[in-house]
Design goal:
A hairpin with a 2-residue loop joins strand 2 (81-86) and strand 3 (89-94). By secondary structure, this protein is α+β, with helices and mostly antiparallel strands. The chain has helices spanning 2-6, 19-32, 35-46, 54-57, 65-77, 96-106; strands spanning 51-53, 81-86, 89-94. Helix 3 (35-46) packs across helix 5 (65-77). The longest helix has 14 residues, at 19-32. The chain has one domain (16-106): Winged helix-like DNA-binding domain superfamily/Winged helix DNA-binding domain (Arc Repressor Mutant, subunit A), CATH 1.10.10. It has a three-stranded antiparallel sheet.
Length: 121
């Protein structure tokens, strides 16, 4: 995820995405396309202190612990979460640069007044 590290985030409406950046963003959006993973990201991001133990977020789901771990791994692989083992538990936090990239690529503030950016036939 090269653009995560470089901090390069030009909105989609200002310039075309590079092939590499589009691949990175697609992986993040694909990870978030699952309702469980979207909720997991939200639970971690909104948890007090900005990080959450897997033991704190698992009870929010009617899923097995291995399934929760799988979804967390997908979010980590997509570059949205990071984690650290502390004793027997793993703590997760959101990677701010990843959320900035997702929001900046969808930013539409550079559109002119009344321009929705939508192409109509």
């Amino acid at each position: 995820m090269s653009n995560l590290k470089s901090g390069c985030c030009s909105p989609l409406v200002r310039e075309p995405l590079s092939s590499e950046w589009a691949t990175d963003l697609a992986a993040m959006f694909k990870a978030l396309a699952d309702p469980v993973r979207l909720r997991l990201l939200s639970l971690v991001a909104s948890h007090e202190g900005g990080e959450a133990c897997v033991c704190d977020i698992s009870p929010s789901f009617d899923l097995s612990q291995p399934t929760i771990s799988h979804h967390l791994k997908v979010l980590r692989s997509a570059g949205l979460l990071d984690c650290e083992r502390r004793g027997t538990w793993v703590y997760y936090w959101v990677i701010p640069g990843a959320l900035q990239q997702l929001s900046s690529v969808l930013e539409a503030s550079s559109l002119g007044a009344g321009d929705t950016g939508l192409v109509t036939a």
